[in-house]
Amino acid sequence: EVQLVESGGGVLRPGGSLRLSCAASGFTFDGYGMSWVRQAPGKGLEWVSGINWNGGGTGYADSVKGRFTISRDNAKNSLYLQMNSLRAEDTALYHCARFASGSYYNPLDYWGQGTLVTVSS
Amino acid sequence: EIVVTQSPGTLSLSPGERATLSCRASQSVSSTYLAWYQQKPGQAPRLLIYGASSRATGIPDRFSGSGSGTDFTLTISRLEPEDFAVYYCQQYGSSPLTFGGGTKVEIK
Question: A61 at the B interface (CB within 8 A)?
Answer without folding.
Answer: yes
